[in-house]
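Re: the request from the purification team.
They wanted to know what the chain is likely to look like in 3D before they choose a buffer screen. I agreed to run a prediction and write the result into the notebook, where they can find it.
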Amino acid sequence: MNTADIKSLIAGMPLDEKIGQLLLATCYSQRQAEVEIERCKVGGFVYIYHDALSLAKLSNHLQECSPIPLLLAADFERGTGATIDGGTDLVSQMGLGATRDPKLCFDVAALTAEEAGLLGVNVNCMPVLDVNTNPNNPIINVRSFGEHPALVGELGCAYIQGTQSRNVLAVAKHFPGHGDTKIDTHLRLALVNWVEDEIRDVALPPFQEAIRAGVDGIMPGHLRIPALEQQPIPATMSRRILQGLLRDEMGFKGLIFSDAMEMGGIVQHFSSDEAVERVFNAGCDLLVMLSDNEEAVDVLRNAVKHGRIAEERVNESVARILAAKTKLGLSDHRKVDVETLPQRLNSPNAQATAHRAALAGITLVKNTHGLIPIKPDTKVAVIAVSNFEAPRSLWKDAVVFPYELMRFVPQVKFLYAGVADDPTQISRAVELASHADVVLVAAFIKVIVALGKIRPNKRVCQCVAALRETGKPMGMISLGSPYILRDFPWVDSYIAAYGNSPATQQAAAELVAGKQPFRGILPVTIAEKYPAGFGICE
């Protein structure tokens, strides 16, 4: 459809149908999604956790159910395999930041978008363009490319171009910048307490670069920013920020996606009807992951009826949404090929890309007495620790590293101590270490949504301290936050891997065993001695 066709279509649409296009609902099940299409006429869905084949079939079915093609979105922040069983699990954004390689970043994004398209997903809520200047940020961390705006902008643009080259919409987030916060917005409203000059010098440049690169969508965060908005409201509700800054000043003409409306940054501070009306009136085109879509339709209909929202404002957003669907070619190509999916997803080429990206980014930060690489005849105790306290969970650590290391160093003994909540775990870890030549701590201290912290807990610190008391040479592989060297500055060797994907753990084992050279460079400062740009390369 061209612009005239879109205007003609909108002119003939009932108000409720237009309002439905503004809603990007959470997809919990097929039946629930069918009801949302029938009752609310939603414009699309957000997928969370599925298996690949079921998801592709579901995408086809939902597109058949909807008179107007659907936007089908996901957060594939580490490739499709991070949330979809059967997809390729790649590397974190910070892992890409450590490569300093825009071409590799483009390739990773293009691969992710290709696999998204195989599943019927046409929107990837990526990249994260937050500049992570706060080491204690509990939710951004390795989701950021790094702490320098220029690096984040360069790699962010490469990621956008890679995504959009494969006919998937890219959505940059979390405008105007979530990098210096102490609160996870999944829990409550976060404060960015910067002066305006800091925001303009550090937080905004990557988004401005993304706009110049033609990014299709931008997602504001649930962030209170007094320097830009005096009212105690998040950026998602601020017309000054979304219309005045993002659209009028920075020139963004694409889709504005709200961050998830069910997050604590909204629901802990505003009623659902107030939130819906204010977020839309501020300038968001799509209201994402509402807790009650029927209520949202009622709220928006009444707001239009009573003049609090102009119907022309609804028409503007619907026009942008339909233009995006037209750009994707959804009128002619809604369905995906389910039959060939198993052969095309997570292919050998995809796995090779994941491996290449992991090898390029993993960083050797410290290596006292040449502990790394470990010689093949060394007796090694690998102790895994974690910051997640629910052992039966989708977030349980998938431990690959020690078993990959065994391929090169046969005398490896392994213990998963987790959060070390059982005293016997610490004693078992010490016993294992006492019979080893070298102790390696595999630290799965990582971002976990709605946990609100990104530091090792007291018990994990006690466990690592007990291992130190054995007097054995000790190395640490951070399979998550690179900043935890601050908690254990005395370890003999330290490796930042920036994530825990299987490809990352496999690459880490090869590097620890000396089968590949270290090439990664820190994209963030983790101590005065180890600033951004540092790395021991071979």
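For the purification team: Residues 102-118 form the longest helix (17 residues).
Please add any questions underneath this entry.
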